Amino acid sequence: MENERILEKIEELMAQYGYSKYKLAKLSGIKKSTITTIFTKRSTVSVYNLSLMCKAFNLTLSEFFAMLEGEPRLDAVQDFPLEWWNSLMPEIRRKVATLMFVLAGLMEKEDQT
Q1: Beta-carbon count within 10 A of 113 CB
Q2: Which parts of the chain fold into alpha helices (H)?
Q3: Which residues, at least 6 apart from 100, have a Cβ–Cβ distance to it below 8 Å?
Q4: Is the pTM of this model over 0.70?
Q5: pLDDT greater than 70 at residue 98
Q6: How far apart are CA 50 and CA 59, in angstroms?
Q7: I need a surface site. Which of 6, 41, 79, 100 has the fewest CB within 10 A?
Q8: CA angle 39-44-45, nearest 5°?
Q9: Phi/psi at 100 (nearest 5 deg)?
């Protein structure tokens, strides 16, 4: 697998999640200087560091590589909102979950009529 494609996908995920290099470093546990070096010098990403970065995006290595290969994840529809859900504060999550339960209840009542 080309290292450049891996770096581009990580940068794409960073943009999607709104992560800076600093935030990726904090969430992954990798030193910021290491992350900076990886992106500045376009260094080869070790499997270990890639796995730590994937965890910061709530992805497994398998899911990450599937994204690179263009294979749709089997659960893509089911977890679609997780990309933004994980970035929400707990109080907002509770409110959104409450709305979802109310909507599900309304839809159930509509189906019964």
Answers
A1: 4
A2: 3-17, 21-28, 32-40, 47-56, 61-69, 82-85, 90-112
A3: none
A4: no
A5: yes
A6: 10
A7: 41
A8: 80
A9: -65, -40
Count, residues in the chain:
113
Ramachandran class of 7: left when φ > 0, alpha when ψ lies in -120 to 50, beta otherwise: alpha
Tokens of 12: 């794409």
What would the two tokens of residue 95 be? 């409110």
Tokens representing 42 are: 């376009």
The residue whose two tokens read 């994937």 is 54
Six-digit token string for 109: 């009542």
**Tokens representing residue 15 in the block:** 């943009």
